[in-house]
Specification:
The protein has helices spanning 14-33, 38-48, 60-64, 69-82. It is 59% helix and 0% strand. It has one domain (14-82). It is an all-alpha fold and 85 residues long. The model has no long low-confidence stretch (mean pLDDT 89). Helix 1 packs across helix 2.
């Protein structure tokens, strides 16, 4: 085992965070409009990285595929733990 390995630290710039929020909201709305449970579908996509969990309606699938999944997960966990709404 190599002892020179270091932990990878993710940092998402503010503008990128807002872009992720906008895309995620658009995907949520598209799934909702098509009658899907948006939370379940987005979680399925995040767990599997299978884009078929996301509808093509309103280009939702292509939009969510533009987001780095690791960065999105990191931001979701950060918001859950630290943002007070």
């Amino acid at each position: 085992m190599d002892n020179n390995q270091s932990t990878i630290k993710f940092t998402v710039p503010g503008e990128e965070k807002e872009n992720m929020r906008t895309i995620l909201r658009n995907v949520f709305d598209a799934l909702n409009e098509k009658g899907y449970n948006p939370i379940n579908q987005i979680v399925g996509y995040l767990l599997t990285e299978d884009p078929t969990y996301i509808t093509n309606y309103n280009s939702a699938r292509s939009k969510i595929c533009r987001i780095d999944r690791d960065e999105l997960l990191q931001e979701l966990v950060h918001c859950y733990l630290f943002d007070k709404t």
